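sorry for the late reply, my laptop died twice this morning and i had to redo everyting from scratch. anyway the thing you sent over, i finally got around to it. pasting the sequence first so we're on the same page, its 376 residues, then the predicted structure underneath. double check i copied it right bc i was rushing
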Amino acid sequence: MSSEPPPTAAVCTRCKENPGIYTLRLDPHCSDCFSHYIRSKCIKRIESYKIRSLPNGSIPVFLLPLSLGVSSTALLQILSTALTTQRQKVSRARYTLKIVHIDESLLNARAPPAADLAAIRERFPEAGEYSVVKLEEIYSFEGEGSGEGSGEGDGEDNAARLRQTLQSLPSPTSREDLARVLRTRLIQRLAAQHGCAGILWGSSTTTLASQILTSSALGRGASLPFLTQDGVHEGVLSYHPLRDVFKKELVTFVKDVVQPSLWGLCTAEEGRQRHSAANAISARNITVGELLTQYFETMEVQYPSTVSNVVRMGDRLKTVGEERRCCTLCGLSVDGGGNGLTLGAEENGDEVPREMCYGCLRSTHGATVELSWPVL
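ok and here's the structure:
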């Protein structure tokens, strides 16, 4: 791991002065140079986005989804420091942040409670505006853009709908997959609702590599350009400022380099791995996403170039063909590759197929009840 100290006599490769107490890309680094490397990777990526003031002269607002994991917490710390520096130098920040935490306690008892956000707000009070949104609030956008009525209703009713729907899915992998889809769509809708200029995802190289293979395994290969690359999705820009940094490096940055340590604030890491890859044969509930996440977190220690190559491969993928109909669940193009899978509702004795892509068809195939998905 990058937190393991190199030989005692090692000197920092960059400054040539201080002891190299951290190993970064095989070279010893001191604390200051390690911090500078991580921050510069993120800031240079941000600068490449060429953020400008809006036509009316106002400062653009970016949505930062905060999972309370290592990556998103590190991103918040880096951006908060950068914004503070901008205000001190030019009396005005180039952009502001809207930090949102999606409360998924309905689905996972180990999910960080909304109260944990208070500690983050106390640590970074001037980073931006903070808010907590429950995952079931995705139903408040039901029917948007389709000419149907709003799905606004009682919060308990929406929670019950979401719980019943996900519990009816055939496997833990399906539940994890569709919960991720709904989380992503909710964040995109929130960004559009608040007029945000874009979304700043806290995805590291390791996270993106895991997402690329997970999506491919689940039949969502066609969605990779939208999920892992910087660009426009549903009219909202999506950026990944930490795409050049490994998760092990962010762990060291958050746990040891930043002072005081941010590790105690990363409450999402405590119950993140519910199943061990070593026990995958007996642990029948392990999901594809969990398995590949653990695989890449192990791989990045000895073979980081392999992890980077997976991300570079994903960056070369492009969408082709004409603009197609959109999946009513994930919002991406219907790829027409259903391989005979269908999921429909009986109406007047006739099957009415839903407009769904292959990945969503796979994840929902075999559901035990009629699904009550938001129509987005």
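The longest strand covers residues 96-103.
thats about all i looked at so far, will dig more tmrw
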